[in-house]
Amino acid sequence: MSDAREERQKKLEALRALGQDPFGKRLDGAQPAGSFTSRFAELETKPVLAAGRVTALRSMGKAAFLDLRDWTGKVQVYAKKDKLGASWPVFENVHIGDLVAFGGPLGKSKTGEITIFAESFTFLTKALHPLPEKFHGLTDPEIRYRQRYLDLIANPEVMQKFLKRTRVLSLMRRFLDDRGYVEVETPMMHSIPGGAAARPFATHHNALDMKLFMRIALEIPLKKLLVGGVEKVYEIGRVFRNEGVDTQHNPEFTLLELYHAYGDLRTMMELVESLVVSLAKEVAGGTKLPFGGRTIDVTPPWPRREFGDLIREHAGADPGDLDACRAKLAGRHVDAAKLSKVELIDELFGQFVQPRLEDACFVINQPIEMTPLCRELPGRPGVADRFEMYAAGFELANAYTELNDPIEQRKRLVDQAGGDEMARAGKVDEDFLLALEHGMPPAGGVGIGIDRLVMLLADSPSIREVILFPLLRENKE
Predict the structure, then answer these.
(1) Where are the domains of the chain?
(2) Which of 27, 120, 310, 473 sits 20 to 30 Å CA-CA off 251?
(3) Considering the domain 153-302+360-404+440-465, what is its CATH architecture?
């Protein structure tokens, strides 16, 4: 046991000896610490009650100044022995990190700081570990991500970032609900992973003796709902992809998927542009967003840029000339010899084009091979009626005019699975195809990465900054 923990253990026993429960009880009526600043003119001289964590303690014998913090902010407390009376012996066992409550009139100290002049004291929880020595400036990413609770205590801006994330989700739901979309929940475990090209996490259901996969997308069940007559539907849910981890990827992430019967890609363009602009104004105060020391402009209308033109412009290669594409990647030390056409073009775009897409834009008209669930663009054989929305150098949304031809859809899924033999082996979702054969209306659909959207709106260049508990390597210590 460390000396600090041993000292706190002694204080805990001292509290019990005084008849005080070190782990407290219900407390009603506490006011948000942030309100004491915003409503000071209204509350000055009036009794208030605040509860929170002690983050600073300056003792002066028979008096003390404390900083008390809750999730709305911080307030100073001035405690005196003669005012607290019988509670003073309990107060003497307070450490930084403990959870306590003070009541008393609100005023200002001699230095002009808003202060509660304590007349009552309640002990709520004894912290058996001290806060990190440098908690006021806790910056070590390893500690911050592994022990997010310390990060939230030490860095108020982190707390505000995650409250901002919550607000983004709330505003997004309100935006969609107001447009007549309905929110649903669909299964997280599927017998066949579908809706995206990604490596799934596999699991096993013991009672049914079934191999299952954690979903990689929300698309297939939502399209079945379109068949069933749910014409405007969305889900905000967790999806799982057994792939790499970097500043833009976490194996478990949050996705919005939405489908609009009788709509198409243009319907989705208007929706995504309106939604992102609305969120930017509500959450970030405007359409020019600070991000990683630069400014990202999401002011509408967003430009439409052709996928092939962007590759020719930035990579200096035609996407139809696969040898030239491989040569360009070789110059970036990428071994492209075994990449399929789709993998090759996607890698070329990621290497040469994506980092240059700073301000919000729609990238349109990708090769149809990249999108097996998308319709071809009318009059453009081999081209998908699709967009990807980019900002700050990363993809935030992916949308299609959805393929609802069950015969063409079967052909593409069989090709994706590796041919008829793989289809007969159960690698094609026959229930989805059966649903399409009953008639899915023409539709537009979109997926939006919530984590990346929050990254953009909260000036957070790493996805780990906007996920409360990102996946980390096992701690061997």
Answers:
(1) 3-131, 153-302+360-404+440-465
(2) 310
(3) 2-Layer Sandwich (3.30)
The predicted-structure confidence for 262-315, as pLDDT tens digits, reads as follows: 999 999 999 999 999 999 999 999 999 999 999 999 999 999 999 999 999 999
Rounded CA-CA distance 256/375 in Å is 21
Cα radius of gyration rounded to whole Å, the chain: 28
- Tell me which amino acid residue 264 is: D
Pairwise CA distance, residues 184 & 196, whole Å: 20
- In angstroms, the first-to-last Cα distance of the chain is 17
Q: Which tokens hold the place of 238?
A: 């967790």
The CATH classification number of 3-131 equals 2.40.50.140
Q: 443 forms bridges with which residues in the sheet? A: 261
Looking only at the bridges linking them, the beta strands covering 182-183 and 232-240 are parallel
> What is the 3-state composition of the chain as percent helix, strand, coil, each rounded to the nearest 5?
40, 25, 35
Task: Tell me the per-residue pLDDT of 41-85, one tens digit each, with 9 for 90 and over.
Answer: 999 999 999 999 999 999 999 999 999 999 999 999 999 999 999
